Amino acid sequence: MVIPVYNERENTPILYADLKTVLDGLNRRYEILFIDDGSTDGTREVLRNLSEKDQSVRSVLFRSNFGQSAAMAAGFQISRGEIVISMDGDLQNDPKEIPRLIEKLNEGYDVISGWRKQRKDKFLARKVPSWIANRLICSVTDVNLHDTGCSLKAYRKEVIKKIRLYGELHRFIPALAKIEGARISEVAVNHLPRRFGKSKYNLTRTFRVLMDLGSLNLFLKYLKNPLRFFGMIGVWFFGLGIVLTAWVVYQIGSDTVPLLDLNVLITLVFLLWTMGFQSLFLGLIAILIVRTGNRKGCTLSPSLIQWGHHGK
Fold this sequence. Notes:
alpha/beta, elongated
């Protein structure tokens, strides 16, 4: 279990108790990883106590607020289970759905996404922005899910360990998993109303998601051969350079352009050709990075503390 939390002091003990009841009933070995994203309301002390009391609980305490994607990335990296399940720490994801996710995963899938079919959130503040973002994400990534934003998901270890997260990319995990050839499905899950605390989501977060969606679109199209993207830009620069070079040669031959204007045109020709070659070299460098880079996942931030049954 990978559970990011931020200022969830009242919710965390209840969630822990509910998880224990469900996970003990599975008759499997398990661990519960709480990732505290710089809480200031006493959540960290609650997690320390749980980690010291229960050997199946480990806590990662960020020294500052780095965001949900960073919290999930840390949890995924240090998780040890063959099956990794993520969920929110606000009690709106129902732990009783965990056995259904595992059952669906065992049908031969690599990623199972929860679908909050009857969502218990405010209509204008949460449901409408989420619906818009979900439709855009599905259209761009070509991953057909009803609810990409649901944190309740189940993954096979070999898939989730390969995925690198930053920004707001935790919303796009199914699309990133698709790049790895993952088989994806979804399950309608129960969604509960928030009992304690306030939602951490707002409209500004929706805009950040849309910005990341643009970079993800580029990532999906040109990951395997980035030279195509940079080469296309270079072709435009080369094309403009060729046209302008021919025009300058013609004007020099006709001797109708003032010297000052001619110097400006020659400088522009030089810039266009230079930009074309730079784009080409950037594409070649990008290919080297893609083919030789380590894609096993992001490294843990140095600004965190791990807390488990063996102590700090």
